Amino acid sequence: MMVILLLILILSVFQVTMIDYLYNNPTYYQLDAYTWESDDFRSLKLGKMVAEWDTLDYDTLTSLMVEHQYDLTGVTDRDTHTDRLLKVKPAEYRKLRQAYETILNDLKFFPIPLSVQPGSPDISYQNGWMDSRTYGGERGHEGCDIMGKDQPRGHYPVVSMSDGVVEKVGWLEKGGWRIGIRTPKGAYLYYAHLYGYSRRWKEGDEVTAGELLGFMGDTGYSQVEGTTGNFPVHLHLGIYIRTDHNEEMSVNPYWVLRYMEKYRLKYSY
């Protein structure tokens, strides 16, 4: 019996020592100066728990991501060890936290308002991050498609998710009629395949969160301006940030949209 108790005591001490070592060893955390450029970061797997938060706590979010290998889709416990992260990798932690703020801090509204008309069909969307696309060559899908339902092009209004400044506007072969807006924190929000614009937007125009940008359509996949009908009516939403090595690096908007669903404007359409 004494031998067994001694073994249990030794194992307990070993476990506590190893846990302490791992938490305080900088190599334990999958975090360095360029973590924000990794595929794990870009996939932005916020998960259901974060999507249901009323407000974002960036310290909790950043710590959870690091401690759960950047995938919160199955996480239900928001307990973290931010103090330990700051102790072993303060600069890297703050850089990662700033990246999450850049993406999320300026967002105020879901891009498609909710219709107040009884029986009006709502939109739908799925996580299509990096699904295969073939037009213009094999590539991954760098965004999220919000699909219209049995309604013609021009039916669904598209509003700005944030304040910002118009950086790009007009026709793109792959994106059709699009508008790109730079948020105050520096994220670039890309709205593509629009059927038309709400007004004559030009580069440098200031935009207010919730302002009508245009209407959902099916433009693009052609060098001919105004081409429609090459795919179903939808809004392609892309989110991009500047990093140390990328002028435009895409991140997955899916869980961002899941979080923003609670912030939908109401329109009559």
Quick synopsis:
With 269 residues, this protein is an alpha+beta fold. The protein has seven helices and 14 strands.
Q: What does this entry look like structurally?
A:
By secondary structure, the chain is α+β, with helices and mostly antiparallel strands. The chain is built from seven helices and 14 strands. Strands 2, 5, 6, 7, 8, 9, 10, 11, 12 and 13 form a ten-stranded antiparallel β-sheet that branches. The protein has a two-stranded parallel sheet with strand order 1-14. Strands 3-4 form a two-stranded antiparallel sheet. α4 (58-67) crosses α6 (90-104) and α5 crosses α6. The chain is globular, with a radius of gyration of 22 Å. It starts with a helix and ends with a strand. The model is unreliable at 13-19 (pLDDT under 50).
